[in-house]
Amino acid sequence: MKYSRKATAALLSGVLALAGMPVLEPSAAEGDLLVTDFEDGDVKAFSKRGDDDTSVIASCTEDAHGGTSCMSVTERSQGWNGPSVSLESLGCKPGVQYLATAWVKMKWYNTVRLSMQYTDEDGEQHYDNLAQIKSDGKWVQIPETKFSFTTGMKDVSIYIEGDDKADMWVDDFSLTAAPVYPIQEDIPGLKDVYADYFKIGGAVTAKELSPKSTQDLILKHYNSITLGNELKPENMLDMKATLAYYEETGDNTVPKVKLNGAAKIILDFCREHNIPVRGHVLVWYSQTPYWFFTDDYTKEGKLVDEKTMLKRMENYIKGVFEALEAEYSDVDFYAWDVVNEAWEDGGTPRLKGKYEDSNGSSAWVAIFGDNSFIEPAFEYARKYAPKGTKLYYNDYNEYMQGKQEAIIKMATDLKAKGLIDGIGLQSHLNCTNNATTDPFPYAQQYESALKKYTELGLDLQITELDVTYDKSVANGEKLQAKYYSDIMDAIVKYKDYISAVVFWGTTDDQSWRASQNPLLFDEKYQAKPCFDSIIDGISYTTTASTATTKKTTESTSETTETTTKSTETTVSSEKSSVSEPTLRGDVNCDKTVDVSDAVLLARFVAEDAGADITETGKLNADADGKNGLTGDDVVTILRIIAKLET
Ligand code: GLA
C-alpha cells in the first residue's frame, strides 16, 4: 500500500483521535467574529473612542481597497481618535487568542496603529500597541496580529489610530479566533535534557500565558519562569497610594507597592505547578516612571536629592519583597535581578536624564551623578530578600569589552562586601547582522566573555537568551540553528558556573523581536531547527518508569576543559554507538510500544518538520521489516498495539 502525504495526514488524525490526543490541524475556537469588506455599507460595529473623540465614522464609496465600499473616519481631532470595536460585545473571552488585520489608508504620510485598550482591576486605563505600519496616502495592510487578554481586564477594545488627525479609510477588516495548535508531546523536554546542568527557563507575560498551549509548552520545557513585565517598577509602583501617603504624612520617601493582577496570574501558575521564579527587576533606568524620582511625584516635578532617593529606593525594595512575601511566600524566588543595564557598552554609566527621552538616559544617574546607586540597591536587596534568594546584576551586550570590564570591576567590589551572588547575562544575540551572514557577537567572542565572567567566582545565569536572524539572508533558519548550537556549546562548556539558561519568551510570534523569529518554537508551537540543534549532541536514555530523559555529553574534550567538575560525565554518542534496533515498534525509544510510537511515526511519514526520530528509533520504526519508513509501518505498529501481531 502506498501513502500520499495527504493520506498519511488523514491516518495521523485517526491515530491521534485513537490516542485521545488533540489533532494537529488547527481548529478555530470560535470562528469569525467580525469580518467585513464594508460592501453592505454597514459600519455599526465600529464606534469612536468616547465623547472626546470627534471622529465621524461612515460608509464611503470613494477609492475602496476592494469592491466599491469601505469605511471612512473623518473629522478626527487627535491622533488617538479612530474606529474602535468592543471585544466583549463580540463575545470574545479571556485566555483565547485572536487575530486581527485590516487595510488602511491615511490622507498624509502617517503611522497607522492597531491598538488595544482596557481597564484594569483598579479602574486604570491601559493602551497597548499591537501592530503598526506606515501609510503615505496609499492603502496598506496592518499585518495579521495575534493577541489575547486576561481575566481582570475589563472593557477591552481594539482600535485603529494614527500619528495625527488626518482622515483615515478602513477596508477588509477581519477579527477572528486564532487557530489552536497543540504542543509537540513527543519531543524531549528541554528541562529534562539539561537537568544535570542547569535550569531551563523562559520569560512570559500574563497575556502570553493565557492560551493552554503556551502553558503546556512551559510545563514541558521550563523549570524557571521570569515575569516579562509584571514585576518591573512601572507595574509594581502604586502611584495613587504613594500620593495619598505623601499628602497624609508629608513624607515623600515612601513609594507604595502593590502586586498587580497580571503578576498574580503568572505567580498563581508558578505556585500551582511548583515552578521557581527569577525576579526581574528592582532598579532599572527603563520601565520606571519618572514621577518615582521627583519631589512631588509628578512628571513635571524636580528630581529629588540623593538622600531622599536612597530612602525611596530602600522603601521600594522593602515594599516589593513584603508584597511578595504576603501572598507568595510559598513560591520559590530563587533569583532576583537587583540592578539591570546600568553600564553603557563602553563601560561608562548611562547619560543623565529621563528614560522616556528614549536615548537610554537614566534618572538614577541624573540624581546620583554616577553609578553609586548600585551598591545601596544590593545592600537593601540583601536586607529584605528572603533567605535563599540569590542576587544578580543583569545586562545585555555583556561581551562588549568596556561593559564587561565595568561589570567585572563592580561585581568584584560587591562580592568582597558579600552583596552579590551572580551575574545575569541577557544574551540577546544576532546570528546574522545587517543582511550579512556575520553573527553578532561571534560565538567565540561570546565564549571568551563567558570564560572571563567565570573567573569572578560568582554564579552566572543566561537570563534573556534569544537569537535573531535576518529573513532576507539565504538559509537564515539554518544559520540560526548552527549559531544557537555554537552558543549552547559554549554555555555547556561552562556549565559548572551556570545555574540557569532562560529564553526571553515562548514562541516566535510573541517575542519582542517577533519579526526576526528569535526563539526555539514557531507560532504553531512547533520546535524549529534551532531546538534540534541545541539538544543534538546530547544523548538521552529514557527510563521507562519515570519517562524522563537523562543525558550524557557527547564529547569528552569539552568536559575536560571545565575545571571544577569531575569527569563523571560518560561519553556516549548515541549516533555512533547504536546500530541495532532495540524493540520493534518503539519509535520514541521509551522501551514500550504504544500509540505515541504510531503517532510519532505517522507524523514523520507525513513530513511534519517537528517529528524527530533518533537513529535507533528509525530502526525500531521499520516494523514491517521492509526497507524505508512508510504508512505500512504505522499500521504494523497499530497491529502490535492491538495485539494482532507480536
Ligand atoms: C531587556 C530587559 C527585559 C526586557 C527586554 C526586552 O533586556 O531586561 O526586561 O524588557 O529588554 O523585552
Average pLDDT rating: 87
Structural class: alpha/beta
| Beta-strand content bin | 15-25%
Lateral strand order in the biggest sheet? 13-14-15-16-17-18-20-21
In total, the number of strands is: 23
Structure, described:
The chain is 30% helix and 22% strand. Among the domains are: 1-24 and 579-646, Orthogonal Bundle (Type 1 dockerin domain); 27-177, Jelly Rolls (Sandwich), CATH 2.60.120.260. α12 links the parallel β19 (428-430) and β20 (459-468). It has an eight-stranded parallel β-barrel, surrounded by four helices. Strands 2, 3, 4, 6, 9 and 11 form a six-stranded antiparallel β-sheet that branches. A four-stranded antiparallel β-sheet has the order 5-10-7-8, with no helix packed on it. The protein has 646 residues and is of the alpha/beta class. Residues 1-10, 16-29 and 541-578 have low confidence and may be disordered. The chain binds alpha-D-galactopyranose. Alpha-D-galactopyranose binds at residues 280, 340, 396, 426, 464, 512.
Distinctive features:
disordered N terminus, 646 residues, alpha/beta, binds alpha-D-galactopyranose, six-stranded antiparallel sheet, single chain, Jelly Rolls, globular, Type 1 dockerin domain, eight-stranded parallel beta barrel
